[in-house]
TrEMBL record:
Species of origin: Dactylosporangium vinaceum
PANTHER family associated with the record: GLUTATHIONE S-TRANSFERASE KAPPA, SLR0313 PROTEIN
UniProt-listed Pfam families: Thioredoxin_4
Protein name, per record: DsbA family protein
Domain of life of the organism encoding this protein: Bacteria
Family the UniProt entry places it in: Belongs to the thioredoxin family. DsbA subfamily.
Family annotation (InterPro entries): Thioredoxin-like_fold, Thioredoxin-like_sf, Thioredoxin_domain
Length: 198
């Protein structure tokens, strides 16, 4: 009797990073790090601080992408916060808005979101109207659907070079994942006729 070993497929990113994504870092970086996050999630707020250190230490190796995955069943204003971030993105202020949202995660509500908009010097009445009309909800939902198709079940979820990172997201864990991915992405150097290069 022959048996076949049980194979587990690792979830992969189904939506490649594109021009509409929010990205930081060099376009040709050997490591693509994609995060699916929720602005009201306490674990995302913790990983936000860790990611700042990671990008400081390995910034030249990483192209970092943030995507929305609002868990509205537990975070009632997560959709709204993501829409505000998209409104800020239309004004080239996605990253400062993201920083503000994570720093003020515990107090997020519709009124407080407009305080954040004003603190960043953005037009609160315009953004209030746009968010009230849900102009950016389709953009947020597109990220969410792509995350579901990629096997995202909670936040934060990271993908390293297209493969879901199922390890921890402490700084040491992410450094190890990035370093391994960078090493695997660089082809080995070989000389002619099997001779070593001097």
């Amino acid at each position: 009797m022959t048996t076949t070993p049980f194979q587990v497929s690792v979830p992969r990113l189904t939506v490649p990073v594109g021009p509409d994504d929010h990205t930081l870092g060099p376009a040709g970086a050997p490591v693509s790090l994609v995060e699916y996050g929720d602005f009201q999630c306490p674990y995302c707020a913790m990983s936000h601080v860790i990611l700042r250190d990671l990008l400081r230490l390995r910034g030249e190796l990483i192209r970092y992408t943030y995507r929305h995955f609002p868990l509205t069943n537990v975070h009632p204003y997560a959709d709204l916060a993501a829409e505000v971030a998209e409104a800020a993105a239309e004004r080239n202020a996605f990253w400062p808005m993201r920083d503000w949202l994570f720093a003020n995660r515990e107090g997020i509500n519709p009124r407080r979101l407009m305080v954040g908009v004003e603190r960043l010097g953005l037009p609160s009445s315009e953004i209030g109207d746009e968010v009230g009309a849900h102009l950016y909800l389709d953009r947020v939902r597109r990220d969410l659907v792509g995350g579901v198709r990629s096997g995202v079940g909670g936040t934060p979820t990271f993908f390293v070079n297209g493969v879901r990172h199922d390890g921890g997201y402490a700084l040491a864990d992410l450094l190890e994942a990035v370093d391994e991915a960078a090493e695997a992405a660089v082809p080995p150097v070989s000389g002619n006729s099997g001779q070593s290069i001097r």
